Amino acid sequence: MLLHTIKEVREQIKEWKKQGLTVGLVPTMGALHNGHKSLIEKSVEKCDKTVVSVFVNPIQFCPGEDLDKYPRTLDADNKLCDEIGADIVFAPNPKEMYGEGHILSNDFLTYVIPPYFYTDKLCGKSRVGHFDGVCTVVNKLFNIVQPDFAFFGKKDMQQLIILKKMVQDLNIPVEIIPCPIVREESGLALSSRNKYLTEQGKINALALSKLLFNIKACYNKGVVDTKYLGETAYSFLNDNHSLEYLEFRDKDTLEEKTIADDNTVVFIAARVENVRLIDNIELR
Ligand code: PAF
Fold it and tell me: What is the pLDDT of residues 210-246, one digit of tens each?
């Protein structure tokens, strides 16, 4: 069932809650791929009812980013959700979510601002305000859908950690279910932004997952000095990659690690053909 208004979604949710059914939410920006598919399948399996939101959220894009060209494929997304067994696809427009005039600055809109310690690093460093936009829209979706469970991919690990913190700090009655990264057979982590890459770009992009797998292999052999582990990675990169960061951080607190352990995540962001790609690996 494709719904565009908050009112329609609320009415349906009210009905389900009356019947004592559990509700799962899979928040997305559309352009659904097999990574999203795995989240929706998990929700359908775990919950009585599943809502997939499809909303390219303008307030999480920074000036100069790809808001206008972000792929929008609602018909195909809706069809896929239907096939997997989702019950509602909620696809509001920006006016429905943010009101008349689309006044999106925080002078005019109540934002949910996650702690600076979590947002001043990794993606938050170059994408200033991005996580404020993510937390604000996800909080709104939680209030609209009132899910028992919400499903997020580990591909956006910093986002996942920040959203878990938001739920904990604000006592939001939802359980966040982290879901594994889905990769192509080649190792490339699935992302809607892979659509911007040429075939050669996709090959060049493999360096990111390759170097992460290599770091994990070294760690498994007993290497724990993150400076050394980081240095091994540079041999995978060349002029086709513009590295933004490669960092070792704690899975819960995002603190930097000098000695890797089982709670360490290795985060990478790099541009290939000027497309900004992110990936990560858990060392455990
Ligand atoms: O991960 C995403 O696609 C988005 O950041 C999310 C969680 C749907 C919020 O717009």
Answer: 999 999 999 999 999 999 999 999 999 999 999 999 9
pTM above 0.70, yes or no: yes
With a Cβ cut-off of 6 Å, ligand 1 is lined by 27-29, 57, 60, 134, 137-138, 156, 159
CA 35 from chain centre, in angstroms, equals 10
Topology given in CATH for the domain delimited by 192-282: Pantoate--beta-alanine Ligase; Chain: A,domain 2 (3.30.1300)
The closest residue, in CA terms, to atom 9 on ligand 1 is 134
Q: How far does residue 30's CA lie from ligand 1's centre (Å)? A: 9
Is residue 36 annotated as part of the catalytic site, yes or no?
Answer: yes
Distance 233 CA to ligand 1 centre (A): 29
Question: Edge to edge, what strands does the sheet with 23-28 contain?
Answer: 2-3, 88-90, 49-54, 23-28, 149-153, 175-179
Helix, strand, coil shares of the chain, percent, nearest 5, are 45, 20, 35
Where along the chain do the CATH 3.30.1300.10 domains lie? 192-282
Q: Residue 134 Cα, ligand 1 centroid: separation in angstroms?
A: 6
Pocket probe for ligand 1: among 60, 139, 179, the residue whose CB has the most ligand atoms within 8 Å is 60
**How do beta strands 2-3 and 264-272 pair?**
unpaired
Q: Quick check: 103 pLDDT over 70?
A: no
Contact 254, 263 (CB under 8 A): no
